What does this fold into?
Amino acid sequence: MGSDCLKVTKYFLFLFNLLFFILGAVILGFGLWILLDKISFISFLQTSSESLKVGAYILTGVGAITMLMGFLGCLGAVNEIRCLLGLYITFLLLILLAQVAAGLLIYFQRDTVKKEMSTMIHELIQDYDPGREDKKNIQDAWDYVQRKLFCCGWTSPENWTENVIIRNKSLTSYPCSCSNGTADSGFCDILANGTVSVADWPVHSKGCMNNVESWLQDNLGIILGVCTGVAVIELLGMVLAISLCKNIHREDYTKVPK
It folds into this structure.
């Protein structure tokens, strides 16, 4: 009976750790996505929010360690190595705490991220210049956002009137990414016989703020959901590992000659 219980616990722990390894890879992927993405709106989050960067580094580290611990857990379960299982339980607890810290940091910093993001985008629009190579990545990312979300500016196209180049051209230029034309970045010109206003621009009438905030909310929700799922598996893995350690100890004790 004890031997059967040991086998069942061992194989359940192996399966949990296999799933644990896969979800660790997902968390690692999320962290790397936040840190390395240069063409979508996530690049703004890297630039505008230090707290999100910290959370991304924690997620990346936790994901990598989670994969390693999933592998060690599988190895310890199959070979019934008590010291390896003990090490696994200890690191699992540390990973769980780090993961909770990263999740809480990202969750409670949402409003701060939004404020920092708004300020940063206004500054980007003011200084937008297709000729600046040092700002190319972040400017391309904002053009990408305006094209994909069919929007213009942060709160409205009026935000672009703060741009130095557009002001110097008396509003006869507009951001190409705000329209449905063939050009997807830089400025486009309109023919004007008199005074030009934003209403004359062939651009999308709504700002990007609401769509971006919805996008941010949805993606952070996915990240937190995955972290929650992994945390549940970690707790179950700890219970199974502790149970397996006890069963191994009991089996070893019964094998001692009397």
